[in-house]
């Protein structure tokens, strides 16, 4: 409960709201809000929702559901999370911790020779960024084809038709960043 009060106070101060101003908006007394912020009282779920709404955040954010990403920002390469492997032999690894507050996802994709991005890279609202760590990759974007070599990058809107192919005889590795995160 102490952490909840601290988060509410921190959000309120970051929003440049006085305690009595937020209390009025929420419909509770300044004393009641002070007790919540100082962990001397617990808000009802209705009050907590109103506080979150007036601070332009979520109840989840106030109760700390997203602190795993904030408190654990480091993922060592050997601790990357395997996500999936498609039929053609491309493997997808998540390069960050899980969390609902993320605004992007970062992945490593390993393309075996002859593999492609089918069922991995999909058309969706948002944007994508690819950076070739090793090897060579062909990206088909709308009607055009682009060949990316080591250290080349590609940035595009994800709502356009796109696919990636490893037509070389060696494994290709790319860092792939997408927004919004894949839900």
From TrEMBL:
Every HTH cro/C1-type domain range:
8-62
Reply yes or no: does the keyword DNA-binding apply.
yes
List the InterPro entries hit by this protein, alphabetically: Cro/C1-type_HTH, Cupin_2, Lambda_DNA-bd_dom_sf, RmlC-like_jellyroll, RmlC_Cupin_sf, TransReg_Diox_bact_type
Q: Which SUPFAM superfamilies match?
A: lambda repressor-like DNA-binding domains (SSF47413), RmlC-like cupins (SSF51182)
* Sequence intervals crossing the membrane: none
Q: Which UniProt keywords apply?
A: DNA-binding
Q: Could you tell me which SMART domains the record lists for this protein?
A: HTH_XRE (SM00530)
Q: Is-annotated flag, keyword Iron? A: no
Record CDD domains:
cupin_XRE_C, HTH_XRE
Q: Signal peptide: which range, if any?
A: none
Name recorded for this polypeptide: Helix-turn-helix transcriptional regulator
This protein's species is: Carboxylicivirga linearis
């Amino acid at each position: 409960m102490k952490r909840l009060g601290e988060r509410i106070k921190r959000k309120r101060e970051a929003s440049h709201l006085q305690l009595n101003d937020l209390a009025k908006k929420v419909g509770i007394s300044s004393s009641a809000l002070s007790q919540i912020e100082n962990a001397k009282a617990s808000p009802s779920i209705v009050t907590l929702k109103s506080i979150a709404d007036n601070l332009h955040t979520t109840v989840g954010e106030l109760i700390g559901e997203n602190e795993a990403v904030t408190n654990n920002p480091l993922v060592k390469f050997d601790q990357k999370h395997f996500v999936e492997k498609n039929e053609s032999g491309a493997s997808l690894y998540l390069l960050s911790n899980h969390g609902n507050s993320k605004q992007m996802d970062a992945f490593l994709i390993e393309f075996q020779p002859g593999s492609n991005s089918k069922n991995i890279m999909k058309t969706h609202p948002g944007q994508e960024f690819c950076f070739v760590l090793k090897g060579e990759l062909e990206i088909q974007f709308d009607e055009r084809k682009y060949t990316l070599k080591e250290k080349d990058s590609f940035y595009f809107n994800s709502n356009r038709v796109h696919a990636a192919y490893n037509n070389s005889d060696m494994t290709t590795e790319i860092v792939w960043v997408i927004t919004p995160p894949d839900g």
